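pls ignore typos typing on phone
flavin mononucleotide + seq
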Amino acid sequence: MLKIGNVEMKNPVVLAPMAGVCNSAFRLTVKEFGVGLVCAEMVSDKGIVYGNEKTLNMLYIDEREKPLSLQIFGGEKDSLVQAAQYVDKNTNADIIDINMGCPVNKIIKCEAGARWLLNPDKIYEMVSAVVDKVDKPVTVKMRIGWDDNHIFVSENAQAVERAGGSAIAVHGRTRVQMYEGKANWDYIKLAKESVNIPVIGNGDVQTPQDAKRMLDETGCDGVMIGRAALGNPWMMYQTVKYLESGILLPEPSVREKMDVCVLHLDRLIDLKDEYIAVREMRKHAAWYLKGVPGSGKIRKEINNVETRDQLVELLYGLAEDDGLEDKITTAV
Ligand SMILES: Cc1cc2nc3c(=O)[nH]c(=O)nc-3n(C[C@H](O)[C@H](O)[C@H](O)COP(=O)(O)O)c2cc1C
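k done
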């Protein structure tokens, strides 16, 4: 079973951290579909250290989400350590994760995210500095390397382990790949063979069968799922069940999809406020509607909704259309 430091997960299925997505509203909704661990979206170390209100609000965790891993990013040791100490003492997160995979220029320019992948010594220095100052287990989420000529996944994973890190998650792409091409699971296997701490595999798990294949082929201890969960928390439940029993559960009805979408919306309204939540929910609603017959015709309207009631009316209008209930064509 997946165990990170003293934190034990009830199964190996992990919700990936996703910026702009994995706030408490979404995480709790996914958690209720049975995943072993949820990861929060990345939070800026400097935002925490400077007490930025928006950043501090991102640290909110509902007890029901636990166990939860909270990810911070940064490029300087002092601020990274201070932010980790803040998370350690002032939040109910179970695990502190360090981002070492974010490929976007804005983050790389601050010497953060995937920038570290080129320098195992820096990884060792930064991770050990954090580990020394906090009580919660510290983990790192990394990509396999910078580009095809600079894949140091083995050295980088070992640097995390030597520094006292409790686990690593490995996304099987390089920084240069961004989200293009295919995740290379061979490097996840290599990471697993390089260290004794748990390794969580990540990248291109789209179905419950993919999750099983990743566990079998790489020997990894957990399987992290990102994009396949967007608008589709059922996929997580189907994966948990498939790994437990080999049984593939059926797709939900349209009505059920809409019910969960509205639950997610209401949680987002509680977390932010209606104005922000409805705008944020437009993209989620489009994801929930993927594969729902007839949804194409309301997509444009969804992008213009301003209130909860308008959105709910559109969603349930679709679910109540005659004969649609059991005709979802694809999962996501
Ligand atoms: C919208 C979006 C936001 C993401 N934000 C983060 C993030 O905050 N931290 C992180 O480590 N990875 C982030 N990722 C990367 C995912 O955690 C994951 O590594 C990647 O999507 C590959 O997994 P998948 O194929 O299951 O989606 C993000 C990905 C997406 C699509």
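The chain is about 45% helix and 15% strand. The pocket of flavin mononucleotide is lined by residues 16-21, 41-42, 71, 99, 101-102, 141, 171, 202-205, 225-228 (CB under 6 Å). more later
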